[in-house]
Amino acid sequence: MHASTHKAMKNWVLGLTGGIGCGKSAVSAMFEKLAITVVDADIIARQVVKPHSPGLAAISEHFGAQVLNPDGSLNRAQLREIIFADTAQKTWLNNLLHPLIREKTLTDLHSANSAYVVLVAPLLFENGLEQYCDRTLVIDVPVEIQLKRTIARDNTSEQQARSIIAAQMSREDKRHRADDVIDNNCPLHLVEQDIMQLHQNYLQLTAKVN
Hints:
Elements: E1 13-17, H1 24-33, E2 37-40, H2 41-47, H3 54-63, H4 76-85, H5 87-111, E3 117-120, E4 135-140, H6 143-154, H7 158-167, H8 171-177, E5 180-183, H9 188-209
Parallel strand pairs: 1-3, 1-4, 2-3, 4-5
Helix pairs in contact: 4-5, 6-7
Subcellular location: Cytoplasm
InterPro entries: Depp_CoAkinase (IPR001977), P-loop_NTPase (IPR027417)
GO molecular function: dephospho-CoA kinase activity
């Protein structure tokens, strides 16, 4: 339990995470169907660099017009190329974006009006976001399933998919650190049953807090 670290948070927060290709989107959609607000760190990361945002203005000022598309949006491929080649530039970018992402995430978690709120973050533990959560849930599938789904979805090579998985926290570490674990390598209706059971548990936990 991590409740003591975020006294200012009015909402009870469930942190939802899992490796690439584990099915976080499908599971978060199940919570949305139960009228639970979902805050997605990946979506927020895109919002803080959208056209006309302070984040994008700072990036284009630092890196120049080469990181912008003709329509004024961020050229992610170009930016990725620059920061992969230069650790100092990657550090600069992280120092700019992480506080912006964190601030927007906390604002969205705080303003949610559902019984509790779900924070979806692939790097929940790696980036220390579990400090804002009352409970954490890991979506778990075998690595071979992760590979298959990632290659099919992102049209990427097996080598690239393996390197992405290798860069993330291991399944074992995630399972060990999480309060709850969902096995997503089974038929959808069974996953939905598990989510319903967890949902009832979370409602009881939030009732105690409130």
